[in-house]
Design goal:
Layout (H helix, E strand, L loop, with lengths): L1 H19 L2 H22 L11 H6 L4 H21 L2 H9 L3 H29 L1 H21 L4 H29 L4 H29 L5 H43 L1
Helix pairs in contact: 1-2, 1-6, 4-8, 4-9, 4-10, 6-7, 6-8, 7-8, 7-10, 8-9
Amino acid sequence: MGFSTALIVGVPIGRVIASVYNWKATFAGIGVLGLLAMLAISFAIPRTGSEEPVPLRKQLALLKEPKIAIALSVTFFWIGGYSIAYTYISPFLLSVTGMSEKTVSAGLFAFGIASLIGSKLGGYGTDKWGFRRTLIGGMLLHAVSLVLLSLAAHSPAIVFPLLMLWSFAAWSSGPTQQYHLITLAPEASGIMLSLNTSVVQLAMAAGAGIGGIVVKQASLASISWIGAAGVAVAAGTAAISLGLSRSRSRVKAEKAGNQQLQKAGA
């Protein structure tokens, strides 16, 4: 919720400040807000006893488990594909779509609102339909929306709602993926969420770098295609890993049932 709200408010305001002054003013504002946030935390958050620290080696040991490593790779490709397109979405809208500065700011504002709705529906869908359907369905919609964005790139009237669809689909996977990771290691939920956050940051950096290479070597219009490919890999990986997990669960259940029948027969 905090991340989505920040997208709604921060991105459009940042664009307005950059257009009126310059991009340096935006970073100066971020620094000031960061200091204010630190002061707010120091006064508002109550003091509590410290928990026993978990050694880094123990945290990274979870990555040795194939199911966890595969699940975190889903996060990497999902956020990486998203970052490839989102990092360069402003120049994409300005140069490829032909939007004005004001329209881009409005589009990013709508983008943020859609991310908030998508995050809420992702949590609801996880409870209502299960995390498998919600996770894979959301990522497939994410990839499709990026493909549609590529096909309609030169039409501002069509791109505007597609931006909202993209944001809605992208952030519907957030709570679902977190729930999925916790189910893999419920006894280490805090560590799993921290690892997932680390992978998110790594994927954002990698996506921005890959997007820069795509823009330089190919074209600005290619970012949505490459981003869609990354998200499609994430959806495919999730489908395969969740399918294997379901098969293993069935095999274990059948073995347990056979053992019970053997005991009853004996």
